[in-house]
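not sure who needs this but someone in the group chat was asking about ABC transporter ATP-binding protein from Caulobacter zeae so here u go. i didnt clean anything up, its just raw.
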Amino acid sequence: MNPEPVLAAPILVAEGVVRSYGDRRVLKGVDLSLRPGEIYALLGHNGAGKTTLVRAICGRLRPDAGSVLLNGADPARVPAARAGLGLVPQEIALYANLSVRENIETFATLAGVPRGKVPAAVRRAMELTRTLDRADAPVRTLSGGFQRRANIAAAIVHQPTLLILDEPTVGVDIDAREAVDAVIRDLRGLGVAVLIVTHDLDQAGALADRVGFLRDGSMVLEGEPRALVAEAFGDQMEILVHLADGLDMAGEIHLAAEGLEPTRRPGVWTRLDSGGYGAAGRLDARLRQLGLTPREIRVRQPSLANLFSLVAERKAA
Ligand SMILES: Nc1ncnc2c1ncn2[C@@H]1O[C@H](COP(=O)(O)OP(=O)(O)O)[C@@H](O)[C@H]1O
Ligand SMILES: [Mg+2]
């Protein structure tokens, strides 16, 4: 028998974090903790307070109430606590005319890596982010995906125990996103705790050990992605109907009457149903009767995206 695994002490403990701008409360008492080797995805609409929370965790702003402990110390008061932190900001924050290596060297020096250790630290950061083969290329000549990875390399060169990425894959193509995900997984393997702020629910579902939904400054739901989805949807499946183009208003009314809702993809409608494939077959027959012959009907497990819609519409939590 294996002994009970001993959980490592948390790297980050934020408790009851409150923050207002003027008389607007942007964070209303948020708790968040992360352990070594854990990937946590922070989700929420624009304006929910995600970046404000990140700034509080980094010690860049002081909470009005509550506390943040990073490796046991308050990063707003104890600069040494910030040494354990790497931040990848949303915008690429590199010197465009310097090479990847020169950029990472600069960040290493700024982060206080002793001069003699800089070359090895820089090499390690480039290996981890798979940017070594572009080491001498000026950053401005790199693709968006390479720039993202170089941005991460700059944030990890001092070997932080917590890496925070604020929307690292906005406007990035799928290959670049997968490359970023691979880097994050490798860091997890090394015991780094990773906090990733993302709008990309597929990314969060695939990558995160835990997710948290921030809504209007409160953490309204938190947990392991698959468990949360299972708890919210039970045996319901998502039925996705793909219709031919040129749906008119009458067609839309028919679809809505069948309980279908439009998705962000044109011509694709969705509904949750505990009747599985049988229900999908009946829906197909019904739509054909209405002259709305589906091009394709898919039945699949509900995802974090379905849960996010529920939470955002305040139907859950
Ligand atoms: N420096 C600031 N001064 C005033 N209001 C701010 C400031 N920063 C953010 N806000 C407001 O606080 C709310 C939360 O912002 P933010 O934390 O950036 O949200 P998110 O990152 O989830 O989109 C927003 O309504 C935003 O307009
Ligand atoms: Mg933000």
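also Residues 50-51 surround magnesium ion (ligand 2) (CB under 6 Å). if thats useful
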